[in-house]
Design a protein that fits this description.
With about 400 residues, this protein is an alpha/beta fold. The chain has a domain of about 150 residues: 3-Layer(aba) Sandwich (Rossmann fold). Helices cover about 45% and strands about 15% of the residues. Helix 15 packs parallel to helix 17. The longest helix has 20 residues. It is globular and about 60 Å long. Bound molecules: nicotinamide-adenine-dinucleotide and magnesium ion (MG). Nicotinamide-adenine-dinucleotide binds next to helix 1, helix 6 and helix 11.
């Protein structure tokens, strides 16, 4: 039996992961579940999956959950912990085999790193942790023989399209030279373009959080939905791909592909382009990473290519999607620039969701924060966390100015 810890089990990725686990009860056990505050959802998950341990980061929520679990004979054995240290402990728990890192934002950094340092198989959905701490994270994976498998659908598709000799230990490619030697010329990172691909710049000023969260192809949490609408999500994914596959900014090309059927491609020096296709359903990359190197049923319907009929592609417009340009710039600047970009974006997206700023202010706040804080070499976690804190202070000031 493989014990899985699902960090962020009440979210969109967490729920899809449990759906996959429920289809393979003889192979996987939902050993640990974690959430921030959603007592109702995690209680239902406890009843259905009977985990050994549960973490609610919020103390009051942990207390409420514990009372409810105790009152039910079927769930009274479940151990409840609270606080963020408990998340890191679960990620490093000796009885845990796989860690699904599906917390949203920088809040997932420490637990993702704890999983890497404990040599786990890490199913990485929390792209923000990699964006913040790229080199340190990849080094922790290597030093501790962890296996890192991407859950983000694009990166999972790239992983599946990479030469087998480069992916035997998971996504941990030694050098850019290894890519060249294996004949990889370019990574083609596809993007749907989000819900506002055809809106005029003027119309964008007035969009509401609900409009921004109504993604045409994917159902996701609210933060990543807004990131998809600004295309910061694609920017974060460019940085994520650079870390996972040891690729430079120039090696990665964003391709707008509105159908979201091709999840990404790798182009080779002999003229071949390998792609992974499928219905837009996160259970495919989740099942892929859980079964890897084998395959298993995910519950996702087969792709009906006749129904798809057409696949369209267009260049990404960097003037319109400023966040994408800022992310490329941050990747090229290196050091703490990606962490600053990420922190400012998290603050600005939250302010937009709270209706404190307009949609079009998000990019400006990220840009101004990057201008005000210079990037430093990201040689330690402390340096990264200081940059994160400083960027949040500046971005918060800009949101309220
Ligand atoms: P979500 O908002 O639906 O869920 C977030 C989860 O994190 C919840 O379980 C919540 O309780 C937990 N959480 C939130 N704040 C926390 C905190 N401070 N401490 C501890 N736990 C906290 O988000 P999601 O859409 O499932 O996305 C999760 C991650 O996966 C993100 O990094 C996102 O970019 C990535 N991702 C998501 C999708 C998708 O389809 N949803 C696709 C690719 C990548
Ligand atoms: Mg993605």
């Amino acid at each position: 039996m493989i014990n899985v810890a699902i960090l962020g089990s009440t979210g969109s990725i967490g729920t899809s992961t449990l759906d996959v686990i429920a289809r393979q009860p003889e192979r996987f056990c939902a050993y640990a579940l974690t959430a921030n505050k959603n007592v109702e959802r995690i209680y239902e998950q406890c009843v259905q999956f009977s985990p050994v341990k549960v973490v609610m980061v919020d103390e009051a929520s942990a207390h409420t959950l514990e009372q409810r679990l105790k009152a039910n004979a079927q769930t009274s054995h479940i151990q409840v912990f609270s606080g963020s240290q408990a998340l890191d402990d679960i990620a490093a728990d000796k009885d845990v085999d796989y860690v699904m890192a599906a917390i949203v934002g920088a809040a997932g950094l420490n637990s993702s790193l704890a999983a890497a340092r404990s040599g786990k198989r890490i199913l990485l959905a929390n792209k923000e942790s990699l964006v913040m701490s790229g080199d340190l994270f990849m080094q922790a994976v290597k030093d501790n023989d962890a296996i890192l498998l991407p859950i983000d659908s694009e990166h999972n598709a790239i992983f599946q399209s990479m030469p087998e000799q480069l992916t035997r230990n998971g996504a941990s490619i030694d050098s850019g030279n290894a890519l060249l030697l294996a004949g990889v010329e370019k990574i083609l990172l596809t993007a749907s373009g989000g819900p506002f691909l055809s809106k005029t710049l003027d119309e964008l000023h007035h969009v509401t959080p609900d409009q921004a969260c109504a993604h045409p192809n994917w159902e996701m949490g609210r933060k990543i939905s807004v990131d998809s609408a600004t295309m910061m999500n694609k920017g974060l994914e460019v940085i994520e791909a650079s870390c996972l596959f040891n690729a430079t900014a120039d090696d990665i090309q964003v391709v707008i592909h509105p159908q979201s059927v091709i999840h990404s491609m790798v182009s080779y020096n002999d003229g071949s382009v390998l792609a992974q296709l499928g219905n837009p359903d996160m259970r495919t990359p989740i099942a892929h990473a859980m079964a890897w190197p084998e395959r298993m049923n995910s519950g996702v319907a087969q792709l009906d290519i006749f129904k798809v009929a057409q696949l369209n592609f267009q260049q990404a417009d960097f003037e319109r999607f400023v966040c994408l340009r800022l992310a490329y710039d941050a990747l090229r600047a290196g050091g703490t620039a990606p962490a600053i970009l990420n922190a400012a974006n998290e603050v600005a997206v939250e302010a937009f969701l709270q209706e404190q700023i307009s949609f079009t202010r998000i990019a400006g706040i990220v840009e101004q924060t990057l201008e005000q804080l210079s990037s430093e070499a990201a040689t330690s976690l402390d340096i990264i966390l200081v940059a994160d804190t400083q960027a949040r202070i500046i971005a918060t000031g800009l949101c309220t100015a």
